[in-house]
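By convention, each integer encodes one residue's backbone shape. The lines below illustrate.
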Amino acid sequence: MIESLQERNIACRDWIDMINQASPATATATVLVVEDDFLVRLCAADALGDAGFTVLEAASGPDALRILESGPVDVVFTDINMPGAFDGAGLARLVRQRWPETVVVITSGRGCPEEELGEALFLPKPYMPDSLSRLIEEALGGHDNANSVRCLAG
């Protein structure tokens, strides 16, 4: 378990270095990272940006909704447990209703909540950057798993 801010920063840098070794992302795809923990959001956004994605960031479901309403997003990558008017599962339901072409990937450190997800992908925390980028690339590539729940090992 990472205890200090310095250890978290080192882990984040190591994580980003690892994603730089991953395969290139689908060109110009836009990913919205929704995570209330600033450092986790920063690491995910930096890693996905380094993998070639255009990355937008939000700290809550309502913030994400405002971004989604302002322009097209290819993938929403959201933590399931967030404070505010609605959590990641609520955001996933809204996205599937209003923007059904947008891929939804949910993450959580509490196991795969299959009953709550509907048509979404799942990646457990802690996850490796190559697992995140690979899952998003597969979903954008139209693989059969892009519209169904799938619990992966991080």
